[in-house]
Structures are given as C-alpha cells and as structure tokens.
Amino acid sequence: MIDQPTIDRILDAANIMDVVSEFVTLRKRGVNYVGLCPFHDDKSPSFYVSPSKNICKCFACGEGGTAVHFIMKHEQLGYYDALRYLAKKYNIDIQERELTDKEKQIRSDRESMFIVNAWAQKYFTSMLYDHIDGKTIGMRYFIERGFREDTIRKFQLGYSLDKRDALYQEAIKSGYKKEFLEKTGLIIAYEDGRVNDRFRGRVIFPVHSLSGKVVAFGGRVLKKDEKTAKYVNSPESEIYHKSNELYGIYFAKQAIVKADCCFLVEGYTDVISMHQSGVENVVASSGTALTHGQIRLIHRFTDNITVLYDGDAAGIKAAIRGIDLLLAEGMNVKVVLLPDGEDPDSFARSHSASEFSDFIRNNETDFVRFKTQ
User: Do residues 187 and 195 make contact, with C-beta atoms less than 8 angstroms apart?
Assistant: First the structure.
C-alpha cells in the first residue's frame, strides 16, 4: 500500500499536460489544449486538456478526468498501479508496505477535518449575514474596505462572534467532535477543560486548496488592541501546510493560464481588491517568504510571475525575498513597485482593471535590472 503523504506528492506533481502529451499531440485552443482522443476513433480533435483545472475530457466519448484517471484508462491500470506509473515518471520514491492502524486513522482524520472546515466556513458566513453582530461589525468592515456583496460571497468571507466559545457550542450541537475542531485549529482547548474559539471577534478569510477545499482560515481582529495580533491563522495540520498553499490560487488558476502570467502580492485584501477590479490572475503569499512548494504551484500554470509590493523600503525588501527561488525554478520574474503610500489593495480600489494593467505594463522591471538599481 502507498501511504497518504506519498500519494499527495504524486498527485501534486502530476501535471495533466505532461502526462497526456506523451500520448496525444496537443494544440493550443484558447486557454485549453486539444487533440485527437486516444479512447475512440476520433476524426476531428475532441479531446480537451485544461491546464488550469488539471483535467482532461473528450467531448465526443466522454472519457477524461485527472492525470491518474487518464493513465488508468490509457494503460489499463488500477488506481495504485497508475500512481506507481506516475511516481516513476516524476522520480518519486515509493516504499511499499501495509498501512499501519495509525496511518489508516490519519487518512480518516483528514476526511473528518475537511468536513469540519466546510461546516465552519458556512457557519462564519451565516454569522456575517444573519447575526446582528455580523451585520453591524463584520459586514461594515468589508463594506468600508470597498468589497461588493458578490465579492464577499465569491471568497466566502465570514465573521466569528466575539464570544468565548460560540462556534464550539454550535459545532458540538451540530454533531461535530471536539477532537477535529481542535485538530483544525478552530478551537483552543486547555488542560483545565476550558475551550476558546481561535477566531473570536474577527472577520474570516477562508484559505482554499487548488481543488477548492477549505484547508485553513485567516482572521483579522477589528478592535484596536496593541496586545492582540492583527491576524491569526490556522495552525499547521494534517490538511494544512502553509508552505504549500497560496491564498487565492483556486480563484486565480484559470485567469493565470489565460494571461500566462501570475501576479504575486502579500495579503488577503490585496487579492480580493484586485479580483474585484477585474485583475484575477493574482495570489498571495500571506506575508511569508516564498517556498519551493508555493512556486511549484504557480509554475503548473505559467512560467511568468510579476511581484507587486508597496513602494516603501519594506516593500522593496519583501520583493527581493524569495525571488532567487523563483529564478532557480526557471521562472521569468518581473517586479512592480507601487507609488509611495499605496499597496495592491488601495491601488486596485482606486483604479480600473485597464488602468491597473497599464500601470503594470509601464512600470514592471526585469528582476536582474531591478536588483541593480
């Protein structure tokens, strides 16, 4: 049996274009690629490959799916043999062995954690729209930031009540286990039996995986209190590894392929404001230096990345951090420093998509030139 971490590595590495193009001649058509279907006698190209969705589909015979499904069908292999095929292709070592009881438990726990997070996202959204505090505090903050309702719903934004254990009590009442609320980081449990909601009194930004599952949350405090951290994020868990996630990638992947470029910014609101202004090929590193895992995620969709940061000294320093990694991964890197006092969030709110694009086009600098200036 193949353990779950190895399966995850194989699935992350498997690029649908790489896999299909070994067997099918593909030509670009819009944001997708098309070729003759290998599963039936295809006279005109009907087999489509979507790099942004990482899937393929024949619109004549209906065959398709992920890279694993393609190999299963094309090579007549079972699921685990298809994984072995892909592991060999991507030089991923597999240690064959029977899963331990603990590993079987972890696999089950992961599924439970995804279910709990999906429930929590709906809970936070309902608090934002249906609870008086959500309407007067959370929604007011989003509206003051200039977010439209369609944008708030698109990014599944929410609000956590400023009560010690409101989410916990509602979750238990709804049948969810304390164990998984704690493992996902939604609550903090103390040895004396007390429980606190991690995100109490904060507006909520769900973090989605590439496939759209909620893997974590970010919460911004609204009270001015020097002792309280402005942002609190979900801790690392079985389903959330910060170094492998980018905020906004689920909503941006198709636009990145279409534009053949990805804009990289720092924070949640930068991504949301740019989307709302019409610039959708944007993701955020959430204030941390870029990692190999995050870069590989972007590289699946484009070779080109433009780093957008504030025009102050801290912004310049942040722009340089991690760019050597981008270059090492073979990315074409450009940098845009925004006018002093502006960040991508504020700049997007005061400019249209065409104005934003014009500014970038006129001000982007090749990284090597930028570093020597």
Answer: yes
